[in-house]
Design goal:
The protein is an alpha+beta fold. Helices cover 29% and strands 14% of the residues.
Length: 80
């Protein structure tokens, strides 16, 4: 079984090395913890989303008169 080291703060993965392993900022992890994408079950690999992710038909939000006044005030340059 191959050993790996993971940096505790950055999360970077290193191959196991005796000198790096002495550092208090790294922890020893298994290959499955280091590279979980290699251990995904076959049933989950080809899975498609069940929700439509198409965003072409999103309507514009309605603009009211009070919002137009607020937007105008916010975008106006102020003199200091």
């Amino acid at each position: 079984m191959t050993k790996y080291l993971r940096h505790k703060l950055k999360g970077t993965i290193y191959g196991w090395n005796e000198n790096i392993a002495k550092s208090p900022n790294v922890e020893e992890v298994t290959e499955e913890q280091a590279y979980p994408e290699n251990f995904v079950p076959k049933a989950a690999k080809g899975r498609k989303p069940k929700v439509s992710l198409i965003t072409d038909d999103i309507p514009e939000p309605p603009v009211s008169d009070s919002m137009a006044d607020i937007n105008d005030e916010l975008t106006r340059k102020t003199q200091v």
